[in-house]
User: Which sequence fits this backbone?
């Protein structure tokens, strides 16, 4: 067993507090990683506070992890001690279903879905299964800790040229926006709108702009207008500013909503071209305002997209390194994590808090 | 001017009553058609009762029209006197926008949209346009009348082998379901669910089955279960029967909702495969239950689709003739039209009422 230290919540109403626990020694296919930096994702907050009604406690969040390999199981071939590596939202999947065999583990249809980096299997076992799931554990502890142990197939290589602390948010915020840009075929000259300009939104802008798309940012925060333009937006507007949005009617090939909470989309549909899609990645709630008097008249779609595959995660890391892209991060001490949660909820992050795990002593 | 007789409503609360009016003589590109049969579409009822808040009165509905050419303008080349022809939902479009140039007039983005067979332009002129629209008329009168005058480009040829009265509903109910089956690429062996089993739904079943898809029907009416199987359904269930639907989770490549009223779709999303779409054609209201905790986990879409193009309308007429497909129709006297409306609203039609226009004397 490996003695581990982390920050976790004991209940939905608890603050995150230091806790000690043990991790299993690595299996032959697993890698032990000393965590250097972990990004703070809005979903960490949703999960800690049980806002998705599925949290297993204690909850040690963290799924934007960068660290160094300290030890490898006997069958590991792709990594060695000292390698700079990353871990995102998944640490295993069923490896047998059609999506897994197609390299889309993030849509794993195995009996327990994929194994999340924290909070355990995406599909918990039921009483009918005697409470047993294929991963043999009901909970997992994430990267708000000094050590993680992960199967090598779910470990990413951090390419040279990426600052380790800035690489961390690419592992969730990056790939969650990269995957739909990729899947919906955004290319050079396409017109893309990014709704919500936080951790995910600012990465979506940087990625889409680097692909060659013309990117418009719609934010709820007037002060972010100029920041978005500085980061490469062709235009940026406050989403509620109807006067500015009216001329944008029918102009976007893709709209990507990164808003992390329930968000009415009726106005956004007016901005889509014929046969275009609004893809929602930020919010896992019911999407209000899906008005078929708008959709049908231009054969539009509203779709969802969930993080990205391991291959896409490696792609986006490599793309960021090749194109000099990195999230805007602010490094924090883990002792300040509860304040950071509050600031994320208040939209004060610019644009991603990353925990320096050296402060966990 | 051409003296015409039809049935129309003077206000949202009026019954349809016999009325006389005049149509313009045919322009050089127009065809005069003596109407034989007109189908009764649920949207006729929505429109007459102003349920879409855009009805222009008097309202003479009817957009599933089969008749014989009685006269042609001097430039008409495709039709001659005596030809059996059809007219669907559109009688003109801007002919200049990108969709029109791509042969998708049903998504016309011209300043006034397409010109509907009744109720005038889809996008009425505003005060800013001095109330003038490109078609020069604020209202049009449809096929609940003895004569229509239509530009030849919007006239369909009724192929040999189609019974004229059964051909009528193909012009809306047929193409409205054919177009999404075509656009979303349904092919042999695909698994398709049809939700709602009325005028549109029963045509969707016949078309999808003839394409070679395995079709499941979900209806609100238990008595329709056996009828759906008789028409070629692989399976049919009452939509609220959760016990039957649970095993269908994740099993459909496409779900086509033909339900003509506001309809919650949350349960339907559970039945889609990964990357599959729910396409709503029956209801032009807000779609409730678009739950991104379902969509995102399998990258699904909810989309709308609006009737079909002129080319698709000809395709589906020809497909029906080639494959021996026809709607199940009940021919009615025009004097019974108000009763027929009530029966359609009560789900009593089996499956499309078609008015014999010879009864309009």
Assistant:
């Amino acid at each position: 067993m490996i003695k581990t230290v982390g920050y976790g919540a004991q209940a939905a109403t608890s603050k995150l507090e230091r806790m000690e626990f043990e991790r299993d020694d690595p299996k032959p296919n697993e890698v032990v990683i000393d965590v250097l930096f972990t990004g703070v994702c809005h979903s960490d907050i949703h999960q800690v506070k049980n806002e998705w009604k599925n949290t297993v406690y204690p909850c040690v969040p963290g799924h934007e992890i960068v660290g160094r390999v300290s030890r490898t199981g006997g069958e590991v071939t792709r990594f060695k001690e000292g390698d700079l590596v990353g871990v995102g939202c998944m640490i295993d999947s069923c490896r047998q279903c059609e999506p897994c065999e197609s390299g889309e583990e993030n849509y794993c249809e195995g009996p327990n879905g994929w194994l999340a980096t924290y909070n355990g299997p995406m599909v918990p076992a039921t009483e009918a299964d005697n409470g047993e799931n294929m991963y043999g554990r009901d909970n997992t502890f994430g990267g708000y800790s000094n050590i993680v142990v992960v199967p090598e197939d779910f470990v990413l290589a951090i390419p040279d040229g990426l600052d380790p602390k800035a690489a961390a948010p690419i592992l969730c915020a990056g790939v969650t926006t990269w995957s739909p840009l990729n899947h919906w075929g955004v290319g050079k000259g396409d017109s893309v709108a990014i709704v919500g300009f936080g951790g995910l939104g600012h990465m979506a802008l940087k990625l889409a702009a680097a692909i060659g798309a013309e990117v418009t940012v719609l934010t709820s925060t007037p002060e972010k207008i100029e920041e978005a333009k500085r980061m490469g937006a062709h235009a940026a507007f406050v989403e509620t500013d109807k006067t500015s949005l009216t001329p944008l009617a029918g102009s976007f090939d893709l709209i990507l909503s990164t808003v992390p909470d329930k968000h009415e989309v009726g106005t956004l549909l007016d901005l889509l071209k014929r046969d275009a899609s609004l893809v929602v990645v930020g919010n896992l709630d019911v999407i209000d305002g899906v008005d078929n008097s708008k959709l049908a008249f231009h054969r539009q779609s509203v779709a969802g997209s969930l993080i990205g595959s391991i291959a896409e995660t490696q792609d986006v890391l490599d793309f960021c390194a090749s194109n000099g892209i990195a999230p805007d991060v602010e490094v924090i001490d883990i002792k300040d994590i509860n304040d950071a949660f509050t600031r994320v909820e208040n939209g004060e992050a610019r644009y991603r808090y990353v925990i320096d795990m050296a402060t966990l002593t």
